[in-house]
Amino acid sequence: MTLQIIGILGLFAIMVVLMMTRKLPTILALPIMAVGIALIAGIPFKGGEFSITADVIEAGAMRMSTAIAGLFFGGFFGKVLSKVGVTRTIIRKAAEMAGDKPLPIAIAFLVVCSIIFAASNGLGMIILVGTIIIPIMISAGLSPLLAGTVLLLSNGIGVTFSVSTLAVYIDVLGLPQDTVTSYSLLCGLPLIVVALVMIVFLTKFNGKTRKAWAMPTSNDLSGEKSVRSIALISPIIPVVLVFAWKLPLVSSILIGIIVTLILSTPKNAVQVISSSFVEGIQETAGAAALMIGIGMVLKAVMAPQVAEVLAPLITAIIPNSSIMFILIFGLLSPLAIYRGPLNVWGLGSGIVALLAASGMNPIAAMVALRLDSNVQAVCDPTNSHNVWVADFTKTDVNEFTKKTIIWIMASTLVGLVVASFMISL
Question: Could you list the residue range(s) of the whole structural domain that residue 225 is in?
Fold first, then answer.
């Protein structure tokens, strides 16, 4: 059994190194790791009560179906908001209200973009929003690094409240939707406060520069047709339905789409719906493929044979006090980057599922993983949106990690301290 533990941990380490060095994409590393773990633990390839082909691969591919559906419909909603003009109108109005002063415009964009990303996130939405707001912020006097950081912070906040990503934690830990949503404020509020403090501090001390940025004509907001003001509430409709009315995720998003179309009345609603659905799926296909790999890893690590092998190790690292809970998930929160063991989009999904299965309170595990995911969402240089922001602002992607990681770790620690008083470990 000791050799099996060494083999599984060694496989984990190899996959992390390959992903960090970009020798192997995560989309391939996760299925390979799932099958490798199963083989090391002695799970038969075919036949028996639990096999690699039937359970790890086949059932694993379907394990995250709720999250995948939420992801697709979230992408669908985001495309509708974009096509009817809601997204650009919100950004334009925020820019008009903030004027050309660096700090007000940075805070305004943090707020409105967080709302937009709560409705729909992903690389496509990051690019759409980023190509508009980053040039505006730079023209107002913010440095490219700080302008990109504002976008990354708003994405991190939005993801915390996003109805399409809540399903990941529902699937991974088997928790009810109401339970997952009820802790969103605990996970998001520390990040919001730290983001505001961070923007104020960096703007006043080292975030200002005066640099002209000629915005592309395709993103010029001056000639952009506005939707009626009432339609600007559209992005928050699914969020309200999930958090306040407790409606299921997909139903809430579909209602949000219908209300958006009613309030904005586009000329060709049928074409908007059909094209948005197809394009939304296309833009979220990569993340969906990641979820398929995550499902396979979950099925592998939750297999009886693997659980038996890892039980002594997992039991030893389960935090049995508030101090250990804070230290393990707080000081080690950088392990959420590079698809590490605290990253829900990488190895973390399997680790936290094992912790919950081995006796840790699943609610505590969920909150810890969501708080650590803030580090991943904002700081991880392997994120596709971090890479795009770095390229667009002509900044080294690692500079964003260096600039933000201490701040986001601080927000995570604050959230864990509060959680340790609220949740039984």
Answer: 2-422
Q: How far apart are CA 370 and CA 344, in angstroms?
A: 8
Structure tokens at 229: 């003001």
Contact 185, 399 (CB under 8 A): no
364/366 Cα distance (integer angstroms): 5
Residue 217, pLDDT > 60, answer no
DSSP-assigned beta bridge partners for residue 208: 142
Rounded distance, CA 404 to CA 92, Å?
27
- Residue 129 in 3-state DSSP? helix
- In angstroms, the CA 330 to CA 413 distance is 5
Backbone angles phi, psi at 318, to 5 degrees: -65, 125
Q: Which residues contact 104 (CB under 8 A, 6 or more apart)?
A: 98
Q: How do the residues of the chain divide into helix, strand and coil, expressed in percent and rounded to 5?
A: 75, 0, 20
In the chain, how many domains are there? 1
pLDDT band at 224 (very low <50, low <70, confident <90, very high): low
Rounded-to-10 torsion of CA 174, 179, 185, 187 = -30
Task: State both tokens at 223.
Answer: 């000639």
How many CB atoms are located within 10 Å of the residue 65 CB?
14
Handedness of CA 41, 46, 49, 53 (dihedral sign): positive
Q: At residue 121, what is the residue type? A: N
Asked whether 326 and 140 are in contact (CB, 8 A), the reply is no
Confidence of residue 215 (pLDDT cuts 50, 70, 90): very low
Tens of pLDDT, residues 75-114: 999 999 999 999 999 998 998 888 778 999 999 999 999 9
Structure tokens at 150: 């504002």
- How far is the C-alpha of 362 from the C-alpha of 357, rounded, in Å? 8
Closest alpha carbon to 89 in 210, 184, 195, 228? 228
* CA 328 – CA 244 distance, rounded (Å): 33
